[in-house]
Amino acid sequence: MKKLMSVLLVSALAVGVLTGCGGTKKDAEKSDVIKIGVFLPLTGDNAAGGELELRGIKLANKLHPEVLGKKVELVIADNKSDKAEAASVAARLIERDKVKVILGSYGSSLSMAAGNIVKTSKVPAIGTSCTNPQVTANNDYYFRACFIDPFQGTVMANYAFKNGARKVAIIQEVSNDYAVGLAKFFKDAFIKLAGPDSVIEVANYQTGDKDFSAILTNIKAMNPDAIFAPGNFTESALLIKQARQLGITAPFLGGDTWETQEFISVGGADVEGVAFSTAFDREKATTAEAKKFLDEYVKEYKGEPSALSALAYDAYLIAIDGIKRANSTDSVKIRDAIATTKDMEGVTGKTTLDKNGDPIKGAVIKTVKDGKFKYIDFVDVK
Q1: Looking at the structure, do residues 319 and 373 belong to the same domain, yes or no?
Q2: What is the domain extent for residue 201?
Q3: What is the DSSP letter of 251?
Q4: Is 308 in contact with 259 (CB distance < 8 Å)?
Q5: Residue 240 domain flag
Q6: Parallel, antiparallel, or unpaired for β 344-346 and 349-351?
Q7: Are residues 164 and 249 in the same domain?
Q8: How many Å apart are CA 334 and CA 147, to the nearest integer?
């Protein structure tokens, strides 16, 4: 009897272990649900950006709920705007939730923190708006829906130069990989245009800082033609607000993180006239998918979408397209299919991924006018 009980116990444990690990690969293939993980900052400093991206992913899932005849289930996790949490969340999505693809994150630092996790686990990830080149560098399992900072920095350097700037100051959020990278690429591009002495100052501040008076007083004395200040939307808006209060009238330029309502809410009238690069605008929405997205977004959320929502929507489409072309729920096969993405029609245009997993697409330049984001120009990839 004892021997029989031991056998039964061992068998039960074996079944439990199998179930806990998500079953066999064959079982996974038979499942009528495909899980896609979503890791975004839904709390913390970057929450506003994460929420905008979650809107885009949820809308994409609503309009494209199935692939290979299976329901697509989103497994949503909050990385809390924290690098350590981002790595932990990515691991949990893979190990516990058995997702086949991961979407995210807003914030290059957060995406980079998850890079080794997806690479060693061989589960592909598609970045939403993480523009630092290091996100996909030397990582065959990380892709993205957005342009990268060397291009974005060059776009804004050209914009500054064409609008008369010959000497600029840079103020960067030094604890933010995105801001530091974008500042460097802007600096390099502007020096090529205006000469070695054209960048007259590079000043640093930390994420969470609220008093920029010392930095701004120093820069005011230098009298730059323009100020490039890539950083998170809250700190950037406070920085510009304090600059105007000090009497600095030079135009402020930035990157795609500024396109959140919080940037306007915090900055108010002081952020009127800024210019920044981003990935989407209604005026350049030419695809059938973009029209569908715009119509449904306005119905769903009662407002105009930002580029963050559009890019996140496209990241979902890249994942679905990869699964469909792989004709499989095997993550390695899905990765291989995503890597060959070509002319996939999305909201931000047609997406073709290069050898690094980065899309070849242009940039929109916007400003703030009358408390709203307004289109200025479009810069295509040359």
Answers
A1: no
A2: 150-278+365-379
A3: P
A4: yes
A5: yes
A6: antiparallel
A7: yes
A8: 22
For residues 124-151, b (16+ Cβ closer than 10 Å) or e, as one string? bbbbbbbbbbbbbeebbbbbbbbbbbbb
In sequence order, what are the residues at sequence separation of 6 or more whose Cβ sits closer than 8 angstroms to the Cβ of residue 295?
none
- pLDDT of 16 reads 39
Confidence (pLDDT) at 280: 96
Mapped onto helix, strand or coil, the DSSP state of residue 221 is helix
Average pLDDT, the chain: 92
Residue 22 placed within a domain: no
Q: Check whether 19 has a pLDDT greater than 80.
A: no
SS3 content of the chain, % helix, strand, coil (to 5): 50, 20, 30
Q: Which helix (H) or strand (E) holds 33?
A: strand 33-40
In a domain, residue 16? The reply is: no
| Cβ neighbour number for residue 179 with a 10 Å cutoff | 30
Distances in whole angstroms, Cα of residue 313 to Cα of each of 75, 310, 348: 15, 5, 9
Q: What are the helix (H) ranges across the chain?
A: 2-20, 25-30, 47-63, 83-95, 108-113, 115-121, 149-162, 177-194, 213-222, 233-245, 261-267, 288-301, 307-326, 331-339
> Does residue 357 belong to any structural domain of this protein?
no
CB-CB contact of 185 with 137 (8 Å): no
- CATH number for position 135: 3.40.50.2300
Side chain identity at residue 189, one-letter code: A
Q: How high is the pLDDT of residue 381?
A: 85
Q: Please, which residues bridge with residue 369 across strands?
A: 372
Instruction: Mark whether 246 and 298 lie in a shared domain.
Output: no
Helical packing angle, 307-326 and 331-339, nearest 10°: 120
Does residue 245 sit in the same domain as residue 371? yes
233 and 172 in one domain? Answer: yes
Number of neighbours of residue 87 by Cβ within 10 angstroms: 19
